[in-house]
Amino acid sequence: MAETACTARPTPHGTPQHPSEPRDASHDSHSSPAPHQPKLPLELVKGILEHSWSDGTAEGVAAVFSSCLASRAFASVARAIIWRAVLVECVNVAKSYEEGYSQALNDPYSSSSCWELSPTARCRLSVLLDRPDLRILIRTFKICPPNGVLRSETASMWPTDFGLVQSVISTLPKVTAIGLAWIHDPDKLYLRPPSQSDSLHTLAVADVKIDEEFLAVFPNLRHLSVRKFSEYRLTEPKHRPPIEIFEYSGHGDAFSRLFRSLGSTLLHLSIDRIPNRDHFSLGEVEPHPELLQPLVRLQDFTGTLRDWYTRTNETGSRKRSAPRNGLISDIAQVFTILATLPHPQQVVLHFVLPPLANPEHRRRDKRFWQRFFTSLREGGSLDAMVPKTIKEVDWSGVFGEGE
């Protein structure tokens, strides 16, 4: 969504005026004259403005903003489009306030561990904070990292910006999707979702406690993405939201305990690592034959091909080759674990590459894994590893479409 400018002209409430506000509009609807009705049907107006906005061009976006000045009826339609998705842009701080990260500030492909809101984002959030009539229009709220780099590690934000973001997030009554990146304040407190939401179905959050209360306050949650979590007494929860997609980006945890309570609804499971025994609290023990038995509806299982050199997106680089024998063991563990699924020909296994910040490192990493799997294929050992529970191995994330 294109970012919007903020003028300094005060409104009757003393807050900045947003371009989606018609110039003759007063916040006191009781004292305003009756709105002028446009000649075109509003449904047709909405279709035209939707097309202009989705066009993505500067002219199309400008047309939507200009329509806010035509009439109150036009402004009402345009405002719902403009504020439907709020993308909060972050920038690297001018000087790192955590030791060891100054070099990242000079890297055009990365982001430092210290962020602040862009001036435009800060302005928009300030407008939202004083405008419940605009907050109710928001369906998607997403924090965007500097340079578009999806960090693997957490990032810190100054308390003033952090508090502004948290205040807005906590008061979004109709939001359906929230992406909070991995942000915390200097005291290591993470951004939190709203305290309750019947409308929320997609949530990406750094740290969350998955307990009875969490499941009760988000009854329609379907897509949950976490970096780490804690879980308490969820064997037979009273409230069970229909979570179908679970994405885990941590370095290893016993998330298999969630399967006993949420496994009956999961369709897609994704781990931002090569899934191994550590993820399932196995240690050196072989997987129990019933390890994944609760995942009766699982259709897709995705593992990201990371090793020591590509463990984080922001600093990962393919400068060296990881030990071949170790990687073969890691891949074999994936197949051994998936062999405990309840049904034959049940899932499609997807291997994907990490979104490393540096494009050259991404290219090197792709060539490395292509050579690795080609060698396994030619030796015949790869096909021998695949268990009967796997319907198909999707190699498009490594070799491209058609492989």
Protein architecture, described:
The protein has 403 residues and is an alpha/beta fold. The chain has three domains: 36-81; 83-228, no CATH class; 244-403, no CATH class. The chain has twelve helices and 13 strands. It has helices at 42-55, 58-67, 72-82, 119-129, 132-135, 159-169, 212-217, 259-262, 324-338, 359-379, 381-385, 396-399, and strands at residues 85-92, 114-117, 140-144, 155-157, 177-179, 183-184, 202-210, 223-231, 245-248, 268-271, 300-304, 347-352, 390-394. The chain has a 13-stranded mixed beta sheet. α9 (324-338) links the parallel β11 and β12 (347-352). α1 (42-55) packs parallel to α3 (72-82). The longest helix is centred in the last third of the chain and has 21 residues, at 359-379. The chain is globular, with a radius of gyration of 24 Å. The protein starts with 41 loop residues before the first helix and ends with a helix.
